[in-house]
Automatic annotation (TrEMBL):
InterPro entries: ChsH2_C, ChsH2_Znr, NA-bd_OB-fold, Thioester_dehydratase-like. Residues 93-159 form the ChsH2 C-terminal OB-fold domain. PANTHER family: BLR3430 PROTEIN. The lineage of its organism: Bacteria, Pseudomonadati, Pseudomonadota, Gammaproteobacteria, Cellvibrionales. Signal peptide: none annotated. This is DNA-binding protein. Keywords: DNA-binding. Residues 61-90 form the ChsH2 rubredoxin-like zinc ribbon domain. GO terms for molecular function: DNA binding. The keyword Kinase does not apply. The keyword Ligase does not apply.
Length: 187
């Protein structure tokens, strides 16, 4: 299967995974059906949905981006030209695996094509911007909390997620961010 960069960007932003739901007192907690052990086993042979998206697979995944050598601006994903100063002298850099939730919302309806999931089994999911240490903001699916339990400023950790299509899992992975701490339960 061959995808254009535009299709890959839309897929990375919009594709929900199969989630199971558990309850933590009054807070709904979403978690992937795959356990961390399953994820490690699966990711041994998996590759990123785009070769310029991730590095350090599978043990220490990290996002790849660009840094302009002329003005120092960072970009995600990897770019060929600087949107700030128009230089074409950019280098690929490791953006890291931790960031801070900058803003968020909930995707409550199935995305438009090229959505690869089953629109009949769609479940709402969090999506937001995570600010990386370099200052670049990365749009991402959000994992680990219920629909209305996100807090701007919370610490986030990059996770690998298998790409799931209507026919089942593929050998590709994408990324999502999980909350490092949970603001719930017994307050």
């Amino acid at each position: 299967m061959t995808w254009s960069r535009c299709q890959i960007r839309r897929f990375v932003r919009m594709t929900p995974l199969n989630w199971s739901t558990a309850t933590c007192n009054t807070v709904r907690v979403e978690k992937p059906l795959l356990t961390p052990t399953d994820r490690q086993v699966l990711s041994e042979d998996m590759k990123p949905i785009d070769p310029g998206l991730l590095t350090g697979l599978p043990s220490k995944p990290s996002l790849l981006g660009s840094r302009c050598t002329a003005c120092g601006e960072h970009f995600f994903p990897v770019q060929k030209g600087c949107a700030n100063c128009s230089s074409d002298d950019l280098q690929t850099v490791d953006l890291g695996s931790r960031g801070t939730l900058w803003t968020w919302t909930v995707q409550r309806f199935a995305p438009k094509p090229p959505y690869l999931g089953d629109p009949n089994s769609f479940e709402a999911y969090g999506v937001g911007y995570v600010e990386m240490p370099s200052g670049v903001k990365v749009e991402s699916r959000l994992l680990g909390l219920g629909e209305d339990d996100w807090t701007i400023g919370m610490a986030m950790q990059l996770e690998l997620e298998p790409v799931v299509v209507q026919g089942g899992a593929t050998d590709l992975v994408t990324y999502a961010f999980r909350a490092l701490r949970k603001e719930c339960c017994n307050d």
